Amino acid sequence: MDQYRPSRRGVLAGAGVGLAGLIAGCAEPRTESSIEGDSSSGIDRENRADGSTYTDVYETIIDSVTQIRVFGIEDPYTEEEGRGQGSGFVVDGEYIVTNEHVVAGAEEVDLQYINGDWSGTRLLGSDRQSDLAVLEADHVPDGATPLGLAEERPVVGQEVLAIGNPYGLEGSMSSGIVSGVDRTVPAPHGEFTFPNAVQTDAAVNPGNSGGPLVDLDGNVVGVVNAGGGDNIGFAISAALSRRVVPALIEEGEYDHPFLGIALATVDRLIAEENDLEQATGVIVTETLQEPALGALRGAERTVERGGEPVPVGGDVILSIDGEPIPDRHALSTVLALETSPGDTVAVELRRDGEVSTVDLTLGVRPTDD
């Protein structure tokens, strides 16, 4: 869909852990922070400092970033209804992207834009397995132009800005770099992982979730979803968002591809116990569902090395459709970004010392509801 292509903004053309406790948004009830601050909409723009490239980026996109207010969610400790807050941003017309965990279980979701306007919303679609959701707003200000999801993959060292509403402070921005790419991040409840996540040292805190992590051209590199201090934050990549968001708008849901296996990255101990020449690839520890059942072989047994069980005898996946699979992170990324349910993929594997190829038709990852 063309509206998700990055918009190169003219004003910028010349401008040079388990995460269960680390969610950067707030879909849980919370008391109002004692920290207060107004939006920047009332700043005297005729009498101010010159700013920087960061200022240009901020002023170009801030009208498109919203604060999200969530009502009617259940406090997991008291089981009483409460409220929460997070961030979001405009991607097309009246569509707002945020995190699934920000709006999950809400009875009502309101938006407030930086100019002070409020809007009601309705939930168009959500996907817990990518932590993405799309809202349809009743009202979008004229200045809230769609933000583009970056087509280029981010690189380590690239400058980025996180814009959102930490602790409910409207229109906040923090700067940093991309400090890691292709991360596989555990979901808060541990049922699955988020592939291809972007790691950043830009400060993200409760209330940032759902807000954009942007490059210096104003393109969205990722959707902030978690931060745990110590200069580590994570965002759902633009590459994954480009696949999920259009489906949420059109269908209300997104199906993820599924091999039907449990696996482990081949490390030195696994390589030694399985007589492998190199510590590379992923070993199938168990076949769980189709399409793996009957086609792939799981580990026959485990041995203990260093106090840890080491799988022995399972197939070792080396590549998928010619894409090398050195570890489980690569497998997650290839499946998430290059395949869809129903696709038939060529899985190159090593079994009993011999390399062969098996064609598998991918299934749909089961939901964890």
Give the low-confidence spans: 1-23, 26-37
How much helicity do the residues have?
Answer: 10-25%
Distance between the termini: 29 Å
CATH topology of the largest domain: Thrombin, subunit H
Q: Which shape, going by the Cα principal axes?
A: elongated
Number of helices: 5
Strand order of the largest sheet: 1-2-3-6-5-4
Largest sheet: 6 strands, antiparallel, barrel
Strand content: 35-45%
Tell me, what is the CATH class of the largest domain? Mainly Beta
Series of secondary-structure elements, N-terminal to C-terminal: HEEEHEEEEEEEEEHEEHEEEEEHEEE
Region (Disordered): 30-50
Family: Belongs to the peptidase S1C family.
Biased composition (Low complexity): 32-42
Keywords: Hydrolase, Protease
Notes on the protein architecture:
By secondary structure, the protein is mainly beta. The chain has a six-stranded antiparallel barrel with strand order 1-2-3-6-5-4. The protein is built from five helices and 22 strands. The N terminus is likely disordered. Helix content is 12%, strand content 38%.
